[in-house]
Amino acid sequence: MTFPGFSENISSFVSIPEQFFRQVLLKINDLAELQLTLYIFWRFQHQEGSFRYIRLSDLLNDEHLVQAMGGGPRKARKTLIRALQKAAERGTLLQSDIPPKQKRDKLICLNSSKGQALMSALRREERLTLARLEQALQLYAEHPNIFQLYETHIGPLTPLIADALRDAEKTYPASWIEEAFRIAIERNKRNFNYIEAILHRWQEGGHDDRKEIKDRRDAQKTRRRYSDWEK
């Protein structure tokens, strides 16, 4: 059946990154890989939320997608899985086992900063349920500043750390948190327990009497005196 043509009254479009056309499209020589990649762009366009992904089981249960792979149902599913592997090897898509691994399902997302964060969380936490992961990722989307501070300067975000950061954000002013991070980084104490101890001490003893600031200022004065002497 010949395609009748695009309607002039189309009200919705699928957003595809320009990088796909410049760096990926012309290198794809497998029809199934191309079909799967475009299909996933379309599926993600109709999802909501900051983190968008799809399960392998959802793809395999989509009759239209499986039929597009050609051959009988069993062969078509093998073709789809092979197409996914090719897209993952190319770097277009990311995939990871979904805990518990006994279910043999996979989670698939685009190779973007958010997709990489999602994959990293899955691979770190073998006992992490998908529902718990979604909760942690949603927290990341709602509280980007403190979470980005942690991931940039301390290490990968985990659900337990996400909960601790959320509690800290509710308990302490944002300026305190940023300052405590800065002090921990300067002292090479890159763990949240140290940061939390600073915040708790300020809360108990008063933020205006911060020993950390006095120590830093004394160190700066000492450096200036040595610099002046060397001149």
Protein model, in words:
The protein is mainly alpha-helical and 231 residues long. The chain has helices at 18-24, 31-45, 56-60, 63-68, 73-90, 113-124, 130-142, 144-153, 159-171, 174-186, 192-205, 211-230, and strands at residues 54-55, 93-97, 106-110. 63% of the residues lie in helices and 5% in strands. The protein has a 3-stranded antiparallel beta sheet with strand order 1-3-2. A hairpin with an 8-residue loop joins strand 2 (93-97) and strand 3 (106-110). Helix 2 (31-45) packs across helix 5 (73-90), helix 8 (144-153) packs parallel to helix 10 (174-186) and helix 10 crosses helix 11 (192-205). The longest helix is centred in the C-terminal third of the chain and has 20 residues, at 211-230. It is elongated and about 75 Å long.
Keywords summarizing the entry:
231 residues, mainly alpha, Arc Repressor Mutant, subunit A, 2 domains, three-stranded antiparallel beta sheet, 3 strands
Write the layout of secondary structure elements.
Elements: H1 18-24, H2 31-45, E1 54-55, H3 56-60, H4 63-68, H5 73-90, E2 93-97, E3 106-110, H6 113-124, H7 130-142, H8 144-153, H9 159-171, H10 174-186, H11 192-205, H12 211-230
Antiparallel strand pairs: 1-3, 2-3
Helix pairs in contact: 2-5, 7-9, 8-10, 10-11
